[in-house]
Design goal:
Number of strands: 22
Structural class: alpha/beta
Number of domains: 2
Shape: elongated
Largest sheet: 8 strands, mixed
Length: 406
C-alpha cells in the first residue's frame, strides 16, 4: 500500500488497484449530511496486459489530484476505457479532465449516461452504452455490467468480474468513514453504523429497489461474490460479503436492532427538554437503548446520524415545539426527512408543546399517519407540563412499550 497525503494506492487483487482519496475537508456530504467522520472516494483500475480500465473517478474539484494519482500508476495516454457506474459528481468529477488529456478514451455506461455527460460537463466523448448484462472482454477478464436502477440514480450500474469474483458497486455498500486500511477485518458495530447512516441518508428513499436489485445481482453472479468494492468506505471481502448483503436487507426492511428507541426534539426555552428528559428516563429504566437528538439553543444534533439510527430503531419519540403557529422549523424539516427516507413502518409517540395556540399536534399527526407511521399516541402540552400531562405521557409510554414488545 502506498499512502501520500490523502491518497491511498493499493491492490485489491492481482490486477485490480484501488485509488482512494481520504476527504477530511467536506463537512456536509451533498451539502446536507454532517460527516465529521470524513468520507473516501474510491476509484478502481484494472490493468490487464495492454488494456487498462478505470472504474469511476473522484469528486469534482479533485481533478488535479486524481490525474496525478492515476498518472503515477499508468500513463493516462494509455488508458483505454472508463466505466461510469453513476454520474453524480463525487464519482464522475474527473471525466472531463481525463477526456481532455486523452480524447481516445472510450467511456462506458448506462444508456442515460451520455446525456448526463453533456449536461454536467459539456463533453461528448466516444461512448459505449451498455445493455443490462452486456460484457466487455479483456485478455484475462470479462466485465459484466449489471443495471441497478434507482440505487440511487436511474443510470446506476455495477460491474462484476467473475475471474476474481469482484463486484464494483459505486454508492451501494458504501459508508461514511475513513478506514485505516483498504480492507476491513470485521464489520464492527461502528462500521455497521457508518454503513447504516450512509444507506439511510443516500439510498433510503429508494428502498423499494434495493431488495429487487440485490436479488438480481445474486442471480446474475450466482452468488459468487468474494469482493465488494464500493465507492465510499472500505473494500469488503471473504466471509464478510454475505454479512454485508444481509445487512443491506436489514437496512431495507428497517429491522430493529438493540432495542433502540430514537428521541428527537426541539426545545427553545426548556419546556420540551424537561418532558423529554422524563421520557428518556422512563424508557431507559425499562431497558430500552435510547438515543437522544436535541435541537436547542445550546446544541444541534447530527440529522444524518438521527436518520441513520431511526432507520433500524424499534420506535421513535418526537417532541415538537410550536413556532409561529407551525412546527418548529428544524423539527418540521426532520419530520419531512423521516417521512421521505423511512417511508413509515415505525411506531411513533408524538408530544407537542405550545404557548398560546394548540395548532401543531393535529397537523403533524396527520402527516405521520399519511406516511404510514403508527402514531401510538399524540399529546399536546401547554407550556410547563402539569401532573395531568405527565400522567398522560406515562400512559402513552406504557402503550409504546406494549407496541414495541408484543
Amino acid at each position: 500500500m502506498r499512502i501520500e497525503n490523502s491518497v491511498v494506492i493499493d491492490k485489491v487483487s492481482k490486477d485490480l488497484i484501488i485509488l482512494r482519496y481520504n476527504d477530511t475537508s467536506t463537512k456536509y456530504f451533498e451539502a446536507l449530511w454532517e460527516i465529521p467522520e470524513g468520507v473516501t472516494y474510491n476509484a478502481y483500475l484494472l490493468i490487464d496486459g495492454d488494456t487498462t480500465v478505470l472504474f469511476d473517478t473522484w469528486k469534482k474539484g479533485l481533478e488535479s489530484e486524481f490525474l496525478n494519482t492515476l498518472n503515477s500508476v499508468i500513463d493516462i495516454r494509455d488508458l483505454d476505457y472508463v466505466v461510469i457506474h453513476h454520474m453524480e459528481p463525487d464519482h464522475s468529477g474527473s471525466i472531463k479532465t481525463l477526456y481532455e488529456r486523452n480524447p481516445g478514451i472510450t467511456f462506458i455506461g448506462h444508456p442515460m449516461t451520455s446525456k448526463l455527460m453533456r449536461n454536467l460537463y459539456g463533453i461528448s466523448p466516444k461512448f459505449r452504452a451498455v445493455k443490462d448484462n452486456e460484457t466487455l472482454s479483456t485478455k484475462n477478464y470479462q466485465l459484466a455490467f449489471i443495471h441497478a436502477p434507482w440505487l440511487h440514480w436511474p443510470e446506476t450500474m455495477f460491474t462484476y468480474i467473475p475471474q476474481i469474483k469482484a463486484l464494483i458497486t459505486c454508492d451501494v455498500f458504501g459508508a461514511y468513514t475513513i478506514p485505516k486500511s483498504v480492507f476491513i477485518d470485521e464489520l464492527s458495530d461502528e462500521y455497521i453504523s457508518s454503513m447504516r447512516k450512509y444507506f439511510a441518508n443516500i439510498i433510503g428513499f429508494y428502498k423499494d429497489n434495493v431488495i429487487k436489485n440485490l436479488d438480481k445481482v445474486l442471480a446474475v453472479t450466482e452468488g459468487n461474490i468474494e469482493i465488494i468494492a464500493p465507492a465510499h468506505g472500505a473494500v469488503i471481502k471473504g466471509n464478510l460479503v454475505n454479512k454485508a448483503i444481509n445487512l443491506y436487507r436489514e437496512f431495507t426492511l428497517k429491522t430493529p436492532v438493540n432495542r433502540k428507541i430514537v428521541i428527537a426534539y426541539s426545545s427553545m426555552y426548556g419546556f420540551v427538554d424537561g418532558i423529554m428528559s422524563h421520557v428518556a428516563h422512563v424508557l431507559s429504566d425499562w431497558g430500552f437503548n435510547v438515543s437522544i437528538y436535541k435541537f436547542t439553543d445550546k446544541e444541534r444534533a447530527s440529522i444524518g446520524d438521527l436518520i441513520g439510527e431511526a432507520n433500524n430503531a424499534l420506535g421513535i419519540v418526537l417532541g415538537v415545539s410550536t413556532y409561529d403557529t407551525e412546527p418548529f422549523p428544524l423539527m418540521d424539516y426532520i419530520i419531512n426527512l423521516l417521512i421521505k427516507k423511512l417511508k413509515g413502518g415505525k411506531p411513533v409517540l408524538l408530544i407537542t408543546d405550545y404557548g398560546w395556540g394548540d395548532v401543531v399536534l393535529r397537523h403533524v399527526k396527520t402527516r405521520l399517519e399519511k406516511a404510514d407511521f403508527t402514531v401510538i399516541d399524540a399529546i399536546s402540552v401547554n407550556g410547563i407540563p402539569t401532573k395531568e400531562d405527565l400522567d398522560k405521557i406515562d400512559i402513552a409510554l406504557q402503550s409504546l412499550k406494549q407496541a414495541l414488545t408484543q
